[in-house]
Amino acid sequence: MLRRLSCFTGLSSLVCFTFLPTQPAAGCKSTPTFSNKADDPKPHNVGSQVRCGGSLASCALPTDGEELLYLTSLVPQNQIISTGQERVNFYIYIPPETNKLAVLEVLDIPNGEEIFEQEFELKTDDTIVRLVLPESVQLLSTPMAERLYWWRLSIYCDPNTDDTVSVEGWIHRLNSDDAATTPRLWHEDLEAWFAERETNPKAWQQGLAEENLGAYADRAVETYVLGN
What are the tens digits of pLDDT across the range 158-205? Predict the structure, then answer.
C-alpha cells in the first residue's frame, strides 16, 4: 500500500495549516504550509520549483546531452485558474517515463477542507492530460481576497518508495458580475481553444504561447473523467 500525502489523508490533518497565504500583487502565490504527523512522513518532492504551475521534476533520468521536459500545468503565469463555472478541468503535461500512479487533490483553503481526492493511473507519457472533475465538486464564487482553492497533482515515480514529483496551483471562481467584466477567464478560454484545436489550431497555439507554454502546444491531449 502506498503511503499517501499525510497532510491530506483526512479532515483531522487538514486543520493543521500554519498560515493562509495572501495574494501578491504579481507573480506566484505561495504554497500553503502544513504540519505532519511524526509517524506519517510526507513524501519527498523531487526537484525544486522553477516556474508557476511547474516543478523541475520528472520520473525520467537524464542522459548526457538530453534535455528533459518537466511536469507542467497549463496555467497563467500567476498560477491562478480563473473561472465563472462551478468546477474546472486541469491541463497538465506529463513528461516521458512519468505515466505512473497519480493523486489529484483539491482543497478549500479558508475552511481547511479537502473537497476532492482521487488516485488513478496515468496511461501515457509525453502527453497533456485533461482531468475532468466530477459534478459533486462545486466551487463557491467569492471575491479573490476571501476564497481560493488549492490543487496538487502528485505522481509516484517508484511504488516502493515515497518519492514523488508534483505540480500545484490555485483556482478562483468569480461571481457572475465579475466574470462578465473580466478580460480573460483562463479555464473558459483554455476549454474553448481545446475544443477548436483541430479546426482553429492557431488559437490554442497563441493562447499557450502568451503564457510561455508554447512548447506544449503540439502535444496530444488525453481526457480523464475522474470520480468514477
Answer: 877 777 889 999 999 988 888 777 778 999 999 999 999 999 999 999
Residue 159: HSE in the Cβ half-sphere, 13 Å Cα cutoff: 5
The Cα–Cα gap between 97 and 57 comes to: 11
- Structural domains present in the chain: 44-59+68-225 (2.60.40.10)
